[in-house]
Design a protein that fits this description.
The chain has no helices and 21 strands. The termini are close together. Bound molecules: beta-L-arabinofuranose.
């Protein structure tokens, strides 16, 4: 089943992170601007300035817009580009994780907090120390630990961090070398810092070899999502310039993860970005495409489609 049409039509929304809080599905998306802009590989056209939070009684139910919950002007350390966010609940508080460029133009990840899942959220004065790049995904493991996954290449700057320091001239690795990898860090009990420096999330093929940079239909690009199903950990992500959503699995949240296959074939538009959530025993893929804007790749819209597992734990591939 799917909604077949955009869930939200009064504004452009993208990068939906969906979670069930208090029995409702809450969606934390990017808010694409309705302006005409030049497009480039640096992603300057994704000039988002605020976040709205949305909720539904169930994935096919009506959507409530809870309004603007955070604006760039209220994030002391950020200068521009509020990109894909995610949210978590722990110990009576809600945490919104979001990337933005700092005053030096370097992407960092910040946190904002609220007593309510629908916000409004108050930003911490500084980004998370040691954070970098874009696309945070926060994952609550069964043992009560929380992990933040993040990272994206090209405009997301992951290629600029290969030495451990930020190098604005950082290049993508050659095609025959291992691909760049998403990062993961365990979160502190107050959810505001990393307990250890971020580490690579290794993705290998079925022979145990790291995926190569030139393997564009399988290697990591951006938009990590972590979920757990029947004891298996699923790392799903966008392949970027191959325009698919794919996944890899492991028996623990840190990996290494073995590549398994495609979840979603390309959508209309350049980017593809998603989340996977369980609601009342059924699983759902939230994603975006550019159908509402007639294909303008930086004016996107959130959609939802039911996701099914096969008996061997693989995810049944979908078309948008
Ligand atoms: O929305 C801006 C960027 O586009 C996100 O951070 C990426 O994942 C891609 O969807």
């Amino acid at each position: 089943m799917s909604s077949r049409s955009p869930l939200i039509t009064h504004m452009f929304t993208a990068d939906p992170s969906a979670h069930v809080f208090e029995g409702r599905v809450f969606i934390y998306p990017s808010h694409d601007l309705d302006k005409d802009m030049e497009e480039n590989d640096n992603g300057d056209q994704y000039a988002m300035e605020d976040y709205h939070v949305f909720s539904q009684p169930d994935p096919l139910g009506p959507v409530t817009d809870h309004g603007q919950v955070l604006h760039l002007r209220d994030v002391p350390w950020a200068s521009q580009q509020l990109w894909a966010p995610d949210a978590a609940y722990r110990n009576g508080r809600y945490y919104l994780y979001f990337p933005a460029r700092d005053k030096q133009g370097v992407f960092r990840i910040g946190v904002a907090t609220s007593e309510r899942p629908e916000g409004p959220f108050r930003a911490e004065p500084e980004p998370i120390p040691g954070s970098l790049s874009i696309d945070p995904c926060v994952f609550a493991d069964r043992d009560g630990e929380f992990y933040l996954y993040f990272g994206g290449v090209w405009g997301g700057q992951l290629q600029c961090w290969q030495t451990g320091e930020f190098r604005a001239d950082g290049k993508m690795p050659p095609d025959d070398q291992p691909a760049l990898l998403p990062k993961v860090a365990k979160l502190s009990a107050d959810m505001l810092t990393f307990v250890a420096p971020p580490q690579d999330v290794v993705i290998v093929d079925d022979k145990g070899e790291k995926l190569k940079a030139g393997d564009i239909t399988r290697r990591y690009f951006e938009g990590p999502w972590m979920h757990q199903h029947n004891g298996t950990y699923y790392l799903s992500y966008s392949t970027g310039d191959a325009h698919t959503l794919v996944y890899a699995t492991a028996d623990n949240p840190l990996g290494p993860f073995t590549f398994r296959g495609t979840i979603l074939t390309p959508v209309l538009g350049w980017t593809t970005h998603h989340s996977i959530v369980e609601h009342n025993g059924r699983w759902w893929l939230y994603y975006h495409d550019a159908s509402l804007s007639g294909g303008i790749s930086y004016k996107r819209s959130v959609k939802v489609q039911e996701l099914f597992y096969e008996a061997d734990g693989s995810i049944r591939p979908m078309t948008p």
